[in-house]
Design brief:
This protein is of the alpha+beta class. It has 14 helices and 29 strands. Strands 5, 6, 7, 8, 9, 10, 11, 12, 13 and 14 form a 10-stranded mixed β-sheet that branches. Strands 17, 19, 24, 25, 26 and 28 form a 6-stranded antiparallel β-sheet that branches. A 5-stranded mixed β-sheet has the order 16-15-29-20-21. A hairpin with a 2-residue loop joins β15 and β16. The longest helix has 13 residues.
């Protein structure tokens, strides 16, 4: 599995998760420079559209087209809070006039990072959002700030750098490994530092690489430079180009600015680099001043077949490849369950509809540090294995994370709870006070999991005064497989 967006041939099935993406190769039939699509089934349609009437008369051999103006909305002013990549790629320069022409609304875009965009929504100071920070979006919705969240499109992130490539990362397919090499070489890396979707994704990958960085932190290493806060991806690319450093960018903004940059694509194709965009209507019940009708009109417009067609083709003429891939109507898969030739997939809603398990979880790491006990809710592995058709005592279960990390559990661990446990008071080895239960967690202490842990995590539930080994916990779980001996 290498470059999902390249000149190589192959058709990819895209499994869109709530926070992360996995890819699986299913056929070798077409070039990936053609937009990757599935049968689109938009659940909503635009309510106000411009109409074109064609008439033919005896005096002419052609046709005459007239475009009627849509009725003016009762409240035509509509505030969109969106990420800078939709602006810097030029996509909104195409979509905004189309939306205004079709609906009669006067769209007022505010462009900033996804974190700032959602902050405006959470204050009721925007009507509709177009953002790309899935875990934060789920939190936004769980806090009652949004009415509807619809998938619109995706592209991918890339790591770019100077042609001389001082860290020696060009051609690597693991973003985490590339970040490790940049850190080891102490070569300048430029970060957004603005809590945007791009910034969150980049810092998550650095954390997976064992490097702790944070927005505005004085403890950030000297080679890690936050240079784009409040200015957007296009500006940060220019800074990295001028300074001869590396940076992390969405592909669309890089391609739109490539001619002015002394930066090459170094790393691409890692499944963890996919970048998903959603449109969110802000909750008008919570924020009465929100233009609910306008927000719905914009959301409907973004997922309509005609707009999706524009998105799918955008960039083809200029760059030879689309800058975004249209996704409206596709299910967002949170977990894939595999048992031999049988594969089952679950959205978060479907996963939460299964029999749930609640328990206490705490961990002891190699340094002897014990984490605070957390109250976890999820689905027991035994329940998921039953969904997959069961397993024998000679089979094992492999749990895979979005970054490719895996952990294998035995039948005895899953069904008999054979895990090491420790007294949380002193960290000493202890006899289990209850049978430890491995489960896939979707809520901790009443909150959905964040961008660091991913939408799902495997954990071991123990008695409240006991902890399990931290090495048995897996963040960002996307796949579970039953493996034959």
């Amino acid at each position: 599995m290498k470059h999902w967006l390249s000149t190589k041939t192959g058709q990819w099935r895209i499994l869109l998760t709530a926070g992360f993406i996995t890819l699986s190769l299913i056929t070798v039939a077409c070039t990936t420079t053609t937009p990757v699509t599935s049968t689109q089934s938009a659940s909503t349609t635009t309510t106000n559209t411009s109409k074109t009437t064609t008439t033919t008369t005896a005096a002419t051999t052609g046709t005459t087209s007239t475009t009627t103006t849509p009725p003016k909305p009762a409240n035509p002013e509509l505030i969109l809070s969106s990420t800078t990549s939709t602006r810097d790629s030029g996509l909104m320069d195409v979509l905004v006039p189309l939306f205004e022409q079709e609906t009669g609304y006067n769209l007022k875009p505010i462009y900033n990072g996804s974190g700032a965009a959602m902050a405006l929504g959470a204050q009721g100071n925007a009507d509709v959002l177009l953002v790309h920070s899935p875990a934060a979006e789920i939190t936004f919705m769980s806090q009652g700030n949004g009415d509807e969240r619809l998938i619109v499109m995706h592209n991918d992130y890339i790591i770019v750098g100077p042609p001389s490539d001082p860290a020696g990362i060009k051609g690597m397919t693991s973003a985490v490994d590339a970040f490790k090499k940049i850190a080891a070489a102490k070569v300048s890396f430029y970060s957004r530092g603005d809590n945007s979707g791009t910034d969150v994704a980049e810092k998550t990958l650095f954390k997976l690489a064992g490097i702790t960085v944070a927005d505005g932190s004085k403890s950030n290493p000297g080679w890690y430079v936050e240079g784009g806060a409040g200015t957007g991806m296009g500006t940060l690319l220019s800074i990295a180009s001028e300074k001869g450093g590396y940076t992390f960018s969405d592909r669309s903004t890089y391609l739109a600015n490539q001619k002015t940059l002394a930066l090459d694509i170094m790393v691409q194709g890692d499944p963890g680099l996919l970048n998903v965009y959603h449109v969110i209507t802000v909750n008008s019940q919570k924020f009465p001043k929100v233009n609910a009708a306008g927000a719905k009109a914009f959301a409907d417009f973004m997922v309509s077949p005609s707009t999706q067609a524009v998105i799918a083709k955008y960039g083809m003429d200029q760059y030879g490849q689309p800058l975004f891939f249209a996704d409206a109507g596709k299910p967002e898969i949170a977990l894939t369950l595999i048992n031999g030739a049988t594969t089952r997939t679950y959205t978060m809603t479907q996963l939460q509809a299964l029999q749930s398990t609640a328990g206490s979880g705490a961990t002891l790491n190699k340094a002897g540090t014990i984490s605070p006990t957390a109250q976890c809710v999820g689905v027991a592995l035994t329940t998921l294995i039953k969904e997959a058709g069961g397993m024998t005592s000679t089979q094992t279960v492999k749990v895979t994370a979005a970054d490719g990390f895996t952990k294998t559990l035995t039948y005895a661990q899953i069904y008999q709870g054979l895990f090491n446990v420790f007294d949380i008071a002193n960290g000493s080895s202890d006899t289990p006070a209850m049978q430890p239960i491995p489960m896939i967690i979707y809520s901790i202490n009443g909150n959905i999991l964040d961008g660091t842990t991913g939408p799902l995590e495997m954990g071991i539930m123990t008695a409240t005064f006991q902890a399990s080994e931290s090495s048995m916990w897996v963040k960002m779980v996307v796949k579970i497989e039953i493996i034959n001996p």
